[in-house]
Amino acid sequence: MSVLTKIHATLDTMAPADRQIGQFIVDNPDEMLQLSSAALAEQTGRSQSSVVKFSQKLGYATYQQLKLAVSEAKTKQWQAPAGMVHGSIERGDGYMTVLQKLVASKLASMQQTTSINTEQTIGEVLDRLDRAGRIHLAGVSASALVARDFAIKLMKLGRNVLHDSDSHVQLASASSLGPKDVLFALSHSGTSIETLRIAEQAKARGAAVVVMTSLKNNPLSRIADLVLYSVGDDDGVRSSAISARDAQLALTDLLFILLVQRQPDADDHIRNSEAAVSALKQA
Asked: Which CDD domains does the UniProt record give (predicted)?
């Protein structure tokens, strides 16, 4: 996971001193690489010990190790293609600027989301889904759209899937889950009260709880047995959770494709599904 992505995603939950240091690093990674811990402390108005402690909170024994991680992150950092503008969409932006910013934002969110989730974690999620007697997809608002899309894909593979757009029905379904079942809950904020209650209910019934949420420490991630992370740089209400939704879709599509590879009769199930739907179109 990129240390710059992790710092940026958790800024809001940091203590004031850590937030000031973290914001400087995110905004000025190249300058940070040229600074000693004492110089960074001076730049941010904090003590040298605060800089060292900040490094340790991120999992690095020393400030030098943090600098190395930032350097590596900069090397791998996604850059918008030449000629494409990347930044917050403003009301005064022209058509082409809005288009370029939108596409760049979507690409960045999907790239960062697929890069921060390790192959090991993805594999563990796939194992849970493979062994599940029933898979319950839960989510509200924009996450409900992603949950529905993933549910349809899993149904095409012949999986026993539960999904409903009504959160009350979702809660009732969660109450029927057991130790052989999996709840797959989506909430980018991790604070949606309906999704939290559904996850708590599934957990109480002994089901495995897999969640897809943001990097920020949140109530939903603390309930989970396994956590997948989505990265979205949505800017306020006008974004309508666009990049977060695209990040979730990219990750669920990845899971679906990997499940298809694992399942020997996946192609047969998909063909049968397509044939059934095709018959309706010809009617």
From this structure: SIS_RpiR (cd05013)
Question: Residues 7, 58: contact at Cβ < 8 Å?
Answer: yes
Q: How far apart are CA 98 and CA 46, in angstroms?
A: 38
**Phi and psi of 185, rounded to 5°?**
-110, 135
DSSP conformation class of 117? S
Q: At what angle do helices 193-204 and 167-174 cross, to 10 degrees?
A: 10
User: CA-to-CA distance for 55 and 63, rounded, in angstroms?
Assistant: 6
Listed as own residue / partner, the contacts of 162-165 with beta carbons closer than 8 Å and 24 or more positions apart are: 162/134, 162/135, 162/136, 162/137, 163/136, 163/137, 163/138
CB 232 within 8 A of CB 241: yes
Per DSSP, helices labelled H in 117-265 are 119-131, 142-156, 167-174, 193-204, 219-223, 242-262
CA of 255: how far to CAs of 107, 111, 151, 153, 283, in Å?
Answer: 18, 15, 12, 10, 33
- What is the spatial distance between Cα 137 and Cα 119, in angstroms, rounded to a whole number? 22
